[in-house]
Amino acid sequence: MNKTHYKIISKGCWCLFAMFGCMLIIVSSLYLYLSPKLPSVENLRQINLQTPLRIYSEDLQLIGEFGEKHRNPIDFQDIPLFYIQALISAEDDQFYSHSGVDIGALLRAAVELVSSGGIRTGGSTITMQVAR
């Protein structure tokens, strides 16, 4: 290997090392900035759904429901398969082919944001939306 190839490879290695260092600094800074604001794991485990207050008559007939939100918990097994498939196809058609972050969708959304000056499409996955 001559000196020119060695210099090119050396510069490439240094560039990769510098990019890795910058990414490490950015990720560490984001973690340090966001970590005090994140809820604890215990708070995330306690799910408090806002179910309505139900008033029943003496013979157990429903008289009325009161409350802003009507959320009724169901088991995962009770969700129809067609609903799950429709949700995945509408929200994240690459759901089964990425590990939670769709780099291609994020890059596409970033390019569209820069080129159009506004948000045209999203790049978040279902996993990212749930985490948010």
Strand content: 5-15%
Q: Could you spell the SSE succession in H and E letters? A: HHEEHHH
Give the neighbour order of strands across the main sheet: 1-2
Mean pLDDT: 81
Main beta sheet: 2 strands, antiparallel
Please report the total strand number as a whole number.
2
Low-confidence segments, given as residue ranges, are none
The level of helicity is: 40-55%
Radius of gyration in whole Å, from Cα? 25 Å
Shape: elongated
Report the span from N to C terminus: 50 Å
Question: How many alpha or pi helices?
Answer: 5
User: What structural class should be given to the helix and strand makeup?
Assistant: mainly alpha
Write a concise synopsis of the structure shown.
The protein has helices spanning 3-34, 41-45, 81-91, 103-116, 126-131; strands at residues 53-56, 62-66. The chain has 132 residues and is mainly alpha-helical.
Features:
132 residues, 2 strands, elongated
Walk me through the structure.
- This protein is mainly alpha-helical.
- It has a domain at 74-132.
- Helices cover 52% and strands 7% of the residues.
- The chain contains five helices and two strands.
- The chain has a two-stranded antiparallel ribbon with strand order 1-2.
- It is elongated, with a radius of gyration of 25 Å.
- The N and C termini lie far apart (50 Å).
- The mean pLDDT is 81.
